[in-house]
Design a protein that fits this description.
Layout: E1 3-8, H1 12-24, E2 27-33, H2 41-58, E3 62-64, H3 69-75, H4 87-107, E4 111-114, H5 124-141, E5 149-150, H6 160-171, H7 182-188, H8 194-206, H9 210-225, H10 228-232, E6 235-237, H11 249-257, E7 261-268, E8 271-277, E9 283-285, E10 291-293, E11 307-310, E12 314-316, E13 321-322, H12 328-333, E14 339-343, E15 349-350, E16 364-366
Parallel strand pairs: 1-2, 1-4, 2-3, 4-5, 6-7, 6-11, 11-14, 12-15, 14-16
Antiparallel strand pairs: 7-8, 9-10, 12-13
């Protein structure tokens, strides 16, 4: 009979080779997913779902702990500015492994370990300290029970790192770009390339249903329409949204009802030209399957625009914008004198984006996570 071990799992890529080794060496892992550190919640769900998928493939027991990021923030309070492998990481490990130890005792399992020890970015000493501290706490609370043991194994040895990479490719796992918390994300962002962020944003969008994106779009549009910039604008530049963008239908309807002049972009060669929008009947399917003004719409000058509402793959709090990589909006924005307002879902608003000196910054960004329209300069 296999020896049951509770395995605290941080993600599927890091867990896969460890699980394979345990099964080959007489151990029966019970997977415990306790990661309240992960930010944002969309990222948490992606990583969680990959673990569920792999556990199902192998027929393993999977237990999910509660996700409470606010509780995690309270636990690490005072350590926020610490670097990776600093005191914040130790406190993070303590919290998660304390929960793992409690779950092991609840299930009657005598040994627990963690996939955290597979990452070369983590301190093995910190993981061992946190795991043994968690085990000591459980043992002290129930001295008459069989002692709980933390297996502080180095999961980087024995070819497991190479096997991890092989299993990642074989299973098509989502491979995250940062450790998990917002502090590790903000430290990693300056080193990410634009294509890395685009791929990440696509994954975060896929973590939502169409209805969820629609509800967030409604909130964003409501914030735009409640602001003085929108209410005082006579001519606005909008866009007709792709399925994964903030849906501007409410803005289009409100603009026409309130007597605003509305312009929409139309692809012409490598550039965008601006045409007047008079209603749904004036649209046709254009480049990339986007609804855009038909050929009968008048081409307008951008000098008359009071407010330009701009989509993007991501924005940061300094007003930098990341597009889809085709450069259409970059060429338009470089000559646009109007107030430039980026709109995005909350998970698309980052602390810092990779950018270049010539990139045009937004004057403001509106998201359900940001009530202030002005950006930091």
């Amino acid at each position: 009979m296999r020896h049951r071990v509770l395995l605290h799992c941080c993600c599927a890529p890091c867990s896969s080779a460890i699980i394979e080794w345990m099964l080959a060496n007489g151990e029966q892992p019970v997977l415990f997913y306790s990661n309240p550190n992960i930010y944002p919640e969309e990222e948490y769900m992606i990583r969680r779902n990959e673990c569920v998928r792999y556990a199902g493939k192998l027929g393993l027991e999977f237990i999910e702990d509660r996700y409470d990021h606010d509780e995690w923030q309270n636990w690490v309070r005072g350590h926020e500015e610490q670097p990776e492998r600093g005191s914040r990481c130790l406190e993070c490990f303590r919290m998660r492994l304390q929960r793992a130890a409690a779950k092991a005792r609840e299930l009657g399992i005598e040994t627990f370990t963690s996939t955290l020890a597979s990452s070369r970015w983590k301190s093995l000493e910190q993981i061992a300290l946190a795991g043994n501290w968690a085990a000591d706490g459980v043992n002290a609370a129930s001295p008459d029970s069989v002692p709980l043991r933390f297996d502080a194994r180095n999961w980087r040895k024995g070819g497991l790192q190479q096997r991890r990479n092989e299993l990642l490719r074989e299973n098509g796992f989502y491979n995250q770009l940062y450790c998990g918390c917002e502090y590790s994300l903000n430290a990693r962002l300056p080193m990410m390339g634009k294509d890395d962020v685009r791929r990440w944003m696509r994954e975060l969008k896929r973590a939502h249903t169409a209805q969820e994106l629609k509800e967030m779009s409604t909130d964003v549009c409501g914030m735009v329409m409640s602001g003085a910039l929108w209410q005082n604008a006579g001519t606005v530049l909008l866009y007709h949204a792709l399925p994964d963008e903030v849906d501007t239908q409410l803005l289009l309807e409100d603009a026409l009802l309130s007597g605003k002049r509305v312009l929409l972009p139309k692809v012409k060669g490598d550039d965008l030209v601006l045409c007047e929008y008079t209603g749904p009947e004036s649209l046709m399917v254009g480049a990339y399957g986007i609804l855009e003004p038909d050929g009968r719409s008048a081409v307008c000058e951008d000098s008359m625009i009071d407010l330009a509402v701009i989509p993007g793959m991501a924005f940061d709090r300094q007003g930098h914008r990341l597009g889809r990589g085709k450069g259409y909006y970059d060429r338009l924005l470089c000559n646009l004198k109007a107030y430039k307002m980026g709109v995005c879902f909350p998970f698309q608003l980052l602390e810092q984006l990779p950018h270049e000196e010539h990139d045009v910054r937004m004057d403001g960004v509106v998201s359900t996570a940001l009530s202030c329209q002005k950006v930091r300069r």
